[in-house]
Design brief:
The structure holds 2 protein chains of 2 kinds. Chain A is α+β, with helices and mostly antiparallel strands. Helices cover 66% and strands 13% of the residues of chain A. The longest helix of chain B has 21 residues, at 29-49. Classes of the chains: A alpha+beta, B alpha/beta.
Chain lengths: 908, 410
C-alpha cells in the first residue's frame, strides 16, 4: 500500500485546510520544528486505523486549541493497483466514508464502521476492537513506519514481534490457508500433546489406551487365576493319588497290627505270672527279714539293759563325792565373808578420823590465811587513815598562796619592779669613792642608813627625791630633786609597795621565790593526802565497816568449823593450839598417814572380795556338776524302763528263743525256692514279653502314622478343593471371554483411532515443516539484503548479521571473528543506520507483491556524511520498489536525492 | 400303537458350544452367548412339544471344560425343561472326559434323573423302549482313531433299534485331510446301526449309505457359531419305525440370531446410497450379525461417507463390521488443490501425494509429476517429524485434508 495524498482540516496545527501529495519513490517532507510534519504523518495512521467514533486522548488533542471544531482528514491510497479514498471526521458528528476510484470517478464503497473496518483491512491492518489503535493494529506500518526517535524496530514489544512474524508469514500464507491450518491445529490439539506428540488426556485414543491397559491388566489377573486353578487341579489330583496309595498302606498296617495284638496278649499273661512270683518272693523275704530282725533285737536289748545298770551304779558313787566337795566350798565362803566385813569396819573408823583431821586442817588454814589477811588489811588502813588526818592538819596549818594568788602576787611584784626601775632612772644616784674611810649617816628619801665606806672603796646609792649624807668629819650633804614626776612616781611606787605588802602579808614573806615554794608545798600535801586516801580505799575496797563485818563473820565461821570436830576427837586440841603453823604441819602429816592406812585396807578388801568371787564360782560349778550327774542317772533310768517295755513287747509272742530260731530257718528255705522260680521267669522276659510288645508298639505306630498321613492329605485335599471350588465359582472363564471380546473390539477401534491421530499428526507436521521452510525463504532474503546494505554503509567491518525469531537483527559478527556480538554493543549511530536499513530491507521484501510505504521521522541524525551518502544511495535503490516518506527539518541533507519529491510544510 | 410297532422318535442335536467365546464380536459376544442358552431352552421345549422319546446330544454341550461352574448350573436348569424326557449327553472334543472334565463336577449330581451322561463305551439300554445306544464318549481333545470302532455287530439283540452316538469327522475320502476323530462313513452298516447321530460339524449333514438310506447325520449346531456357516441353526427330529427301518429325518430351524456375510462393490456415491438402503431393509437388525467386505476405488467423498455408514451400522445391528481394506482412495487432488491457494498448503498436498506414490496400493491413484514428487520426498527426508507413514495413514491424512479443506472453504 502507498499513500497518494493526505488532506487535513481542524487538525492540530492545521486549522486551515492543508494538503500534501506524495509521489511513488522518495518524498522529503521538510519544515521547521512544530510546523506539523509528524502531525501530518500521524493523520495518515489515524485515518487508516482509528475508528471514526474514537474519542481517545490522542484524537481529542487534535482539536485546534480554543475551538470545538471536528478534526477532519482525507487520505487517498493505493493498494493492489486500486485507488481508494477514506474520509473521516472525528468527535463532533463523526463520520467515515470509503470510496474507490472507478474510471476516474470516486464511487462510495462503505460508510461508518464498515468503512473503518474495510479501510483498515485494505491497509493491511485492523481497527481495534476497543480503545485507541496500537502498533499491532497497523499491519506492516508497525515495522515500516518509524516514529520520531526510534532507531530500531527491535524496541517493539513481544506481542508486536509475534504479529510481525505473522505478518511476514501472512505474505506467504493465504487467508484460506490460515483458516485451514487453524482447523487442523485445533484438531491436533484435541488429540495430541504439542511437545511430546502423545495422545492427549481425555482424547478418545488416550481413553481407549487406558481402557485397553485396564483390560490387559485384568486379563493378566485372570490368567494368573487360571494358572492357579490349573495348579490347584493338579494338586487335587496329586493328593487323590497319594490318598489311594496311603489307603493301601493302611490295609497292610491294619493286618500287621492284628497279628501283633494277638502275640501281645500272650506276652501279657507271662508278665502277669512273673509279677506274681516276684511279689511272692518279696513277701517271703519280708517275712524272713521280720523274724530275723526280732531275734536280733531281743538279744541286743538284753545286753543294753545290763550295760545301763552298770552305768547307773557308777554315776551314784560320783554324786556322793561331788556333794561332799560342795559342802567344803560353802564353808570356805562363809569365813571369807566375815573377814571382809572386819576390813570394812576398819576402813569406816579410819575414814572418820581422816574426816576430822581434814576439818582441823582446813580450819587452821582459814585462820592462818583468810583471817590474818583480813585483819592485816584492816590495821594498815586504820594507820593510813590516821596519817591522812596528820597531813590534812599540816595543810590547814600551812599559809601558802594558791596558784591564782601566786599569779596575782607575781603580777604585782613585776609592776612594782617596773615602776621602781622607772623611778630610779629619773631619781637620784650617788657614787662615793672613798679616798679615805668615810663614815656617817646616809638618808635616802628620808631613810636613814649608816654610812661606812672603807678607804679606797666605792659605793653607790640611789634615791628618788632626796639624799642626805652626813659624813663624819665632813659635814652634811643634802641633795633634793625638785621634779613633780618623781614625786608622783614615788607615790605610785609607794602605793604599789603598800598593795604588795598587803597581798603578801599573810604568807610572811615578800620573796616571790619563797611564795612559790609555799605554793609547791601546798600542792605536795594535797597530792599526799589524795594518794594515801587512795591506798586506804584500795585496802578496804568494801569499806572499813564491811571489812570489820567480814572479819567478824570469818571468826564465826572458824568457830563453827571447830564445832564440827567432836570433843572426843584427839584433833580437837588444834582449836586451842596457838602455833597454827606447827598445827598445820601436824594435821598434814596426820592426813597423809590416815590416807595411806585407808588405801591399804581398801586394797585388802578388794583382794578378799575377789577371793570370795572365786569360791562362789567353784561352788556354782560343783552344783552344776551334781545336777548333770543327777540328770544322767535319770536319763539312764528312763532308757532302761523303755528297753524293758520294748523287750516285754517283743517277747509277747510267747515263744522261746529256740522256737523263734527254728521258725526263721523254715522261712529261709521257702524263700530260696521261690527265688529260683523267679529267676527262670526273668530269663524268659525278653523273648516272651518284650519282643512281642515292641512288635505291637511298632505296628500300632505304623497304623497311627498311616492314619495321620491320610488325615493330613485329606485335610490338604479339602483345602485345595475348597480353593479350587472358590476359583471355579469366580466366573473367570466368562469374564475372560468378555475381556477378550472387548479387547478385540477395542484393538480394532484403536487401530482406527491411531490412523486418525497419525493422519492429523502427519498433516500438522507437514504444514509446520513447509511453513517453516517458506518462512525461512522469506526471512533469508531480508537477512541477506540487510547484511549486504550494512556492509555498504559501515564497510567490511561486520561480515554477518543474524536475525532473531522476530526477524530483527540480534547479532552482528565482526569480520574474522568466530563469535557474534549483540546489536546493543554497536554505537548509537551504527544502530541508527542498522535500524534504517532494517526497515528498507523489510520493506523491499514485503513489497514483493506490491509497493509499500516506509516512513522515517528525521532518521540518521547521528550519521556522518560518508555513511549518510551510502545510506541515501541504498535508499534511492530501495525506493524503486517502495514509497518512502522522510520527515526532516534538515532538507539539505537530502539534496543528493535528485529524484525525490519535496513536500514543504509551513514557511521554511 | 407305538408300543406295538416299537417306533421311536427322538431329537438329535449337538454342538451347543455353550460358553462360546466370540472374540471378533467384541461387546456383542455376551449377547451371542446368552442367546445360545435361550435357543437350547427353546429346543428342549420344542422336543417336549413334539413328544420325543428321548434326546441325544452328540457332543460339545460346552465350549470347553474350562467354562464357569455357573454355566453348568444353568445347563442343568435348561435340561429340566425337557424333563421327564430322557436326555443322553455325549462328551465331545470340546468337553472331553479328561481329568478336568466338566462332567466330573459335583453339580451334575443335582441333574434330573432323566439326564444321562454317556461317559462309557458300552451299550446303554433305554428303559421301556427297544432301543440300545452305542455311545462313543471323547476322552481327549485330539485323536486319529475312530471313536466308533468299538461297536460290534455280534452283540445284536433281535428286534432292538441300535443307535450310535459319536463326535468326530466323518472320514469321507477327499473331503477333509487329516481329520480329528475320523469316523468311518460305513460305520452304520458295519455296526448294523439304525442311526448314527454325529456331532462336531456345525452344519446339518446327512450321509447316504450305499443302499441309499440316510443313516448317518450331523444335526449341526442349534445356533450358528460363526459367519459363513451354511445349514446351521438346526436340530434333527428322527423317527425309526422298528429295527432295520430307514430313519425319517426332519430338520428343525431353531436359530435365534442371523449371521450374514455380504460383499459389495462401491465406486461412487450412488452405490453407497444403494447399500445404505439395503442395510435399512434388513429385518430384525438387533438379532443380526453382519460382516461386510466392500471393495472398489472411490473418491474421498465416498470414503468420508463410508465412515458415516459404519457408524450407522454399528448403531443398528447386533454386530456390524465393514472391511474396507479393499476400498481404495482415488483422491480428488485437483479439487483439493483448487480449493485453497497458498504455498504451504500446495506443498503439503504434494507431499501427501508423493507419500502415496511410495505405497504400492495407492500409487496407482495419484498423478503427481514424478520430479515434484521426488523433490518433496527429498525434502521430507530431512524432516524427522514426518517419518515413514503407512499407506492407511497417508490415505487418511489426505481424506482428512480434503475434509478440512472443505470446512475451511465454507
Amino acid at each position: 500500500m502507498i499513500v497518494r495524498k493526505v488532506q487535513v482540516e481542524n487538525w492540530g496545527v492545521f486549522r486551515s485546510p492543508f494538503e500534501a501529495d506524495f509521489a511513488d519513490g522518495i518524498n522529503i517532507v521538510s519544515g521547521l520544528n512544530e510546523v506539523g510534519k509528524t502531525t501530518m504523518v500521524d493523520a495518515i495512521r489515524i485515518c487508516l486505523f482509528e475508528k471514526h467514533t474514537a474519542r481517545s486522548h490522542k484524537i481529542e488533542s487534535l482539536v485546534p486549541w480554543g475551538t470545538t471544531l471536528s478534526p477532519y482528514v482525507i487520505v487517498t491510497f493505493n493498494t493492489k493497483d486500486e485507488d481508494y479514498r477514506i474520509e473521516k471526521r472525528f468527535l463532533m458528528s463523526p463520520s467515515s466514508r470509503l470510496e474507490k476510484r472507478v474510471d476516474d470517478k470516486w464511487v462510495r464503497m462503505a460508510e461508518g464502521d464498515v468503512a473503518d473496518y474495510q479501510t483498515a483491512q485494505l491497509a493491511g491492518g485492523e481497527v481495534p476492537s476497543r480503545g485507541a489503535s496500537r502498533p499491532e493494529h497497523w499491519g506492516l506500518g508497525q515495522v515500516l513506519w518509524t516514529k520520531q526517535g526510534d532507531t530500531m524496530p527491535a524496541r517493539l514489544n513481544q506481542e508486536t514481534l509475534d504479529k510481525l512474524q505473522g505478518i511476514v508469514s501472512s505474505v506467504v500464507t493465504s487467508h484460506e490457508e490460515g483458516r485451514l491450518f487453524d482447523i487442523l491445529w485445533s484438531k491436533f490439539d484435541q488429540v495430541l500433546t504439542t511437545k511430546r506428540r502423545e495422545p492427549k488426556a481425555g482424547s478418545p485414543l488416550h481413553s481407549l489406551l487406558g481402557e485397553i491397559q485396564r483390560l490387559e491388566d485384568r486379563k493378566g489377573d485372570l490368567n494368573n487365576k487360571w494358572a492357579e486353578k490349573e495348579q490347584l487341579e493338579r494338586n487335587v489330583e496329586d493328593f487323590q493319588m497319594q490318598l489311594a496309595k496311603e489307603r493301601e498302606e493302611l490295609q497292610a498296617a491294619d493286618k500287621e497290627f492284628e497279628e501283633a495284638t494277638s502275640e501281645d496278649e500272650q506276652a501279657k499273661t507271662h508278665e502277669t505270672e512273673r509279677k506274681k512270683i516276684d511279689a511272692d518272693v518279696n513277701a517271703l523275704q519280708q517275712k524272713w527279714d521280720g523274724l530275723h530282725e526280732k531275734v536280733e533285737r531281743i538279744r541286743k536289748l538284753k545286753v543294753e539293759i545290763e550295760e545301763r545298770e552298770e552305768q547307773s551304779r557308777t554315776a551314784g558313787t560320783r554324786l556322793e563325792i561331788l556333794e561332799g566337795e560342795r559342802d567344803e566350798i560353802a564353808e570356805k565362803l562363809v569365813t571369807n565373808k566375815k573377814e571382809l566385813e572386819g576390813i570394812q569396819k576398819d576402813i569406816e573408823l579410819l575414814s572418820e578420823s581422816l574426816k576430822h583431821v581434814r576439818i582441823a586442817h582446813d580450819t587452821i588454814e582459814k585462820e592462818r590465811r583468810e583471817l590474818v589477811g583480813f585483819e592485816g588489811r584492816f590495821q594498815k588502813a586504820e594507820k593510813l587513815k590516821r596519817y591522812v588526818k596528820d597531813l590534812q592538819k599540816n595543810l590547814e596549818d600551812l599559809s601558802a598562796p594558791s596558784r591564782e594568788e601566786l599569779d596575782r602576787v607575781r603580777r604585782m611584784h613585776f609592776e612594782l619592779a617596773e615602776k621602781e626601775v622607772e623611778l630610779r632612772s629619773i631619781g637620784l644616784r650617788v657614787i662615793l669613792k672613798a679616798v679615805d674611810e668615810i663614815s656617817g649617816e646616809l638618808y635616802l628619801d628620808g631613810k636613814k642608813m649608816e654610812l661606812r665606806t672603807p678607804q679606797g672603796a666605792q659605793e653607790e646609792w640611789e634615791a628618788a627625791q632626796h639624799i642626805k649624807m652626813v659624813v663624819e668629819n665632813f659635814g652634811e650633804l643634802d641633795i633634793t630633786s625638785g621634779s613633780q614626776d618623781v614625786r608622783e612616781l614615788q607615790s605610785e611606787v609607794e602605793q604599789l609597795r603598800e598593795n604588795f605588802k598587803k597581798a603578801t602579808a599573810q604568807y610572811g614573806t615578800v620573796e616571790i621565790g619563797s611564795l612559790e615554794k609555799l605554793a609547791e608545798r601546798r600542792d605536795r600535801l594535797e597530792r599526799d593526802i589524795q594518794t594515801t586516801e587512795q591506798t586506804v580505799s584500795e585496802l578496804a575496797s568494801e569499806g572499813m565497816e564491811e571489812l570489820r563485818k567480814q572479819i567478824t563473820r570469818l571468826r564465826q565461821s572458824i568457830k563453827d568449823d571447830w564445832q564440827k570436830i567432836p570433843d572426843y576427837s584427839p584433833f580437837k586440841k588444834f582449836e586451842v593450839e596457838k602455833d597454827k603453823e606447827s598445827a598445820r604441819a601436824e594435821t598434814v602429816s596426820l592426813m597423809e598417814k590416815l590416807e595411806d592406812d585407808v588405801g591399804h585396807l581398801q586394797k585388802q578388801m578388794r583382794e578378799t572380795g575377789q577371793e570370795q568371787n572365786g569360791i562362789a564360782e567353784d561352788l556354782e560349778g560343783k552344783k552344776n556338776e551334781i545336777q548333770e550327774t543327777r540328770n544322767a542317772i535319770e536319763h539312764l533310768t528312763g532308757e532302761q524302763e523303755r528297753s524293758r517295755e520294748y523287750l516285754e513287747e517283743l517277747e509277747q509272742d510267747g515263744l522261746s528263743t529256740k522256737e523263734r530260731e527254728s521258725e526263721l530257718k523254715e522261712a529261709a528255705v521257702e524263700l530260696e525256692r521261690k527265688k529260683l522260680l523267679l529267676e527262670r521267669y526273668v530269663e524268659e522276659k525278653e523273648g516272651k514279653e518284650e519282643k512281642p510288645a515292641r512288635r505291637y508298639k511298632k505296628a500300632e505306630g505304623r497304623l497311627e502314622e498311616v492314619k495321620e498321613r491320610i488325615s493330613r492329605i485329606e485335610k490338604e485335599l479339602a483345602v485345595e478343593e475348597g480353593r479350587l471350588d472358590h476359583l471355579l465359582q469366580a466366573g473367570i472363564y466368562t469374564e475372560a471371554s468378555r475381556i477378550e471380546e472387548e479387547l478385540e473390539s477395542l484393538h480394532k477401534r484403536k487401530k482406527g483411532l491411531e490412523i486418525e491421530v497419525y493422519a492429523i499428526n502427519l498433516l500438522c507436521n507437514l504444514v509446520e515443516f513447509y511453513g517453516r521452510q517458506i518462512l525461512e525463504s522469506v526471512t533469508e532474503p531480508i537477512r541477506a539484503r540487510l547484511t549486504e546494505d550494512f556492509r555498504r554503509v559501515v564497510g567490511p567491518k561486520y561480515s554477518v548479521i543474524e536475525l532473531d525469531d522476530g526477524i530483527m537483527p540480534s547479532f552482528v559478527r565482526p569480520a574474522n571473528w568466530d563469535s557474534s556480538a549483540e546489536v546493543d554493543v554497536l554505537s548509537y549511530g551504527t544502530q541508527e543506520q542498522l535500524g534504517f536499513l532494517v526497515r528498507l530491507a523489510l520493506g523491499q521484501v514485503l513489497a514483493a507483491d506490491e509497493s509499500q510505504l516506509v516512513i522515517f521521522d528525521d532518521p540518521l541524525t547521528n550519521t556522518d556524511d560518508i555513511r549518510l551518502a551510502h545510506c541515501l544511495q541504498i535508499l534511492e535503490e530501495a525506493a524503486r520498489k517502495l514509497q518512502v516518506i522522510i520527515l526532516t527539518c534538515h532538507p539539505e541533507k537530502y539534496t543528493a536525492l535528485e529524484s525525490a519529491n519535496t513536500v514543504p510544510v509551513g514557511q521554511y | 400303537l407305538k408300543e406295538v410297532i416299537s417306533m421311536v422318535r427322538f431329537l438329535h442335536t449337538a454342538d451347543w458350544q455353550l460358553g462360546m467365546r466370540a472374540k471378533m464380536l467384541g461387546e456383542a459376544g455376551e449377547l451371542v452367548r446368552s442367546t445360545r442358552i435361550k435357543t437350547v431352552v427353546n429346543l428342549m421345549k420344542e422336543a417336549k412339544k413334539r413328544s420325543v422319546d428321548f434326546i441325544i446330544v452328540a457332543g460339545d454341550v460346552f465350549e470347553s471344560n474350562a467354562v464357569d461352574r455357573d454355566l453348568i448350573r444353568r445347563v442343568v436348569d435348561t435340561l429340566e425343561e425337557a424333563s421327564p424326557t430322557p436326555i443322553y449327553i455325549l462328551p465331545g472334543n470340546h468337553d472331553p472326559l479328561t481329568p478336568d472334565s466338566i462332567y466330573k463336577d459335583r453339580l451334575w449330581k443335582s441333574v434330573p434323573p432323566c439326564v444321562t451322561i454317556l461317559d462309557e463305551r458300552r451299550p446303554y439300554s433305554i428303559e421301556k423302549l427297544d432301543v440300545i445306544l452305542y455311545p462313543c464318549p471323547i476322552q481327549q481333545k485330539v485323536s486319529k482313531l475312530d471313536p466308533t470302532a468299538w461297536m460290534e455287530r455280534d452283540e445284536r439283540e433281535a428286534g432292538k433299534i441300535r443307535i450310535g452316538i459319536a463326535h468326530g469327522t466323518l472320514d469321507i475320502p477327499g473331503l477333509i485331510s487329516d481329520p480329528n476323530f475320523p469316523i468311518s462313513p460305513s460305520r452304520a452298516e458295519d455296526a448294523a446301526l439304525d442311526y448314527l447321530a454325529l456331532g462336531d460339524w456345525h452344519s446339518v449333514y446327512r450321509h447316504e449309505s450305499k443302499d441309499g438310506v440316510e443313516r448317518i447325520a450331523y444335526s449341526g449346531t442349534p445356533e450358528p457359531t460363526a459367519f459363513g456357516e451354511r445349514n446351521s441353526g438346526r436340530a434333527l427330529l428322527v423317527e425309526i419305525d422298528r429295527a432295520g427301518s430307514p430313519p425319517s429325518i426332519e430338520e428343525i430351524d431353531c436359530a435365534n440370531l442371523r449371521w450374514l456375510e455380504w460383499e459389495r462393490e462401491i465406486a461412487d456415491l450412488e452405490q453407497l446410497a444403494t447399500l445404505k438402503e439395503e442395510l435399512a431393509n434388513v429385518p430384525e437388525p438387533q438379532k443380526t450379525l453382519l460382516r461386510m467386505d466392500v471393495h472398489g476405488v472411490a473418491e474421498t467423498e465416498v470414503h468420508l461417507r463410508i465412515d458415516e455408514l459404519i457408524r450407522l451400522g454399528m448403531g443398528t445391528f447386533l454386530y456390524f463390521e465393514m472391511a474396507t481394506d479393499r476400498l481404495y482412495l482415488k483422491p480428488d487432488i485437483k479439487k483439493i488443490k483448487s480449493s485453497i491457494t497458498g504455498s504451504i498448503f500446495t506443498r503439503t498436498v504434494e507431499a501427501l501425494e508423493a507419500l502415496m506414490m511410495r505405497c504400492p496400493t495407492l500409487s496407482g491413484h495419484v498423478s503427481l509429476d514424478p520430479q515434484v514428487a521426488e523433490e518433496r520426498l527429498e525434502e521430507l527426508e530431512g524432516a524427522e517429524s514426518i517419518g515413514q507413514p503407512s499407506a492407511e495413514v497417508v490415505e487418511r491424512a489426505l481424506s482428512m485434508l480434503y475434509e478440512v479443506t472443505m470446512e475451511a472453504k465454507r
